Amino acid sequence: MRRHRNVKIVATLGPASETYDMIRALHEAGADVFRLNMSHGQHDEIREKHRIIRQVEKDLDSPICILADLQGPKLRVGVFANGEEELKEGASFRLDLDEAEGDGARVCLPHPEIFQALEPGASLLVNDGKIRLKVTECSHSHATCEVIVGGTISNRKGVNVPDVELPLAALSEKDRKDLEFVCQLGVDWLALSFVQRPEDVAEARDLAQGRAAILSKIEKPSAVKRFDAILAASDGIMVARGDLGVELPVQNVPPIQKRLVRACRAAAKPVIVATQMLESMIESPVPTRAEVSDVATAIYEGADAIMLSAESAAGSYPVEAVTTMDNVAREVENDPTYTQIIESSRVAARTTVADGIVAAAREIAETTDIKAICCFTQSGTTALLTARERPRVPIIAMTSLRGTARRLALTWGVNCVMTSELDRFKMAVINAARAARAQGYATTDDQIVVTAGVPFNVPGTTNILRVAPCQESLIYAADPS
């Protein structure tokens, strides 16, 4: 299904979007990727959503990417005898391992690993940062805190620990079970929560065993500090601004977002900008102007994808939210300023033959009347490198592997077309011309650029480029053999 934009849209599925009709409507409205949130729903419910997505994919003959988002370890306080308590600024409050019900002076925090890492002066944030505590004294079994910002604390509210790197694996026992389940089910990407170090990514990769690509969610200060190493270990990145905005001063998030997006672009790895992009559309059919500007900013930065969370999962207007993102993307990408920004932030990376081929393809396409760049790819690497160039013309990724086509649905500007396995470059050119015409990118009077690797079906061998006519008789005339 051809999109008239380059940025991709990720829609989270939930109670508001779990039927065949709604999932199909979301895809037709513009959703390229569906996110399955493993924090919610039983395995049977996840399996049914997966089945419906694949049915929509089959019915529309359009590769659809499925992203399974693992929950990660959740740090929460225990329960209170009264259900909730009011903490006053300046008061003392204790967190400990005692499982007894809490009161206005203390509550259980059943995570001994937190106490092992805490030091006096460290901050603890409760309930998405609404309550802020400062550790004044601690041991391996408790932490006495001063209430810096008070408020109502209630049962099982989440706790963030921004100042220290916790001795916690990114994968809980639940995550390990969920990972194996969704890999057997057949998802395309795994989003890994609570990443603090590259070793967290390596653990998930070992468990996935190549069955899904690994996308690291950057939501902790320690992940920002180690971002280069985490990016190198990952296949993609999600800028999870919600938790970043809790654990860091909110004014730090925009520059971090910009730096992370640029680093991902330079590394030719997909990056999603996520969280609260159209938050008001959970209850309203139209977004705020600030939200539209936020979405536009991510697109101007060159992000591969923008994401809807509760807007499509539990909101009253899921299709309208996707349509809004689609409309904003088209408007931004038609703005001449967009092209100027994207091209001025392009990073020249030409250390391999493949780098040189895709850079040449872009330059030829932009200096002559070329309608599309068609790249043949098995692993997806050639398409990722081509997308890194952010060319002005469409990218058509031709592959015989359904899994590759699905994974690439997350990548900027890439339109995936299934093709049979090929063993001759001439047939690759003919298939590329047919795809360009069939998808409406070109006519028989136009030309395209074709890139491929010879020998065929060997990953990482991109070594050939040809400017080809879309009229098959001219292709045969140039190569009668």
From TrEMBL:
List UniProt keywords, sorted A-Z: ATP-binding, Glycolysis, Kinase, Magnesium, Metal-binding, Nucleotide-binding, Pyruvate, Transferase
- Domain Pyruvate kinase C-terminal, first and last residues per copy: 356-467
Q: Which cofactor(s) are needed, names only?
A: K(+)
State the reactions this protein catalyses: pyruvate + ATP = phosphoenolpyruvate + ADP + H(+)
User: SUPFAM superfamilies, alphabetically?
Assistant: Phosphoenolpyruvate/pyruvate domain, PK beta-barrel domain-like, PK C-terminal domain-like
Which Gene Ontology molecular function entries are recorded, alphabetically? ATP binding; kinase activity; magnesium ion binding; potassium ion binding; pyruvate kinase activity
Q: InterPro entries given for it?
A: Pyr_Knase, Pyrv/PenolPyrv_kinase-like_dom, Pyrv_kinase-like_dom_sf, Pyrv_Knase-like_insert_dom_sf, Pyrv_Knase_AS, Pyrv_Knase_brl, Pyrv_Knase_C, Pyrv_Knase_C_sf
* Highest taxon of source: Bacteria
Q: Which PANTHER family match?
A: PYRUVATE KINASE
Family, according to the entry, reads as follows:
Belongs to the pyruvate kinase family.
| Protein's recorded name | Pyruvate kinase
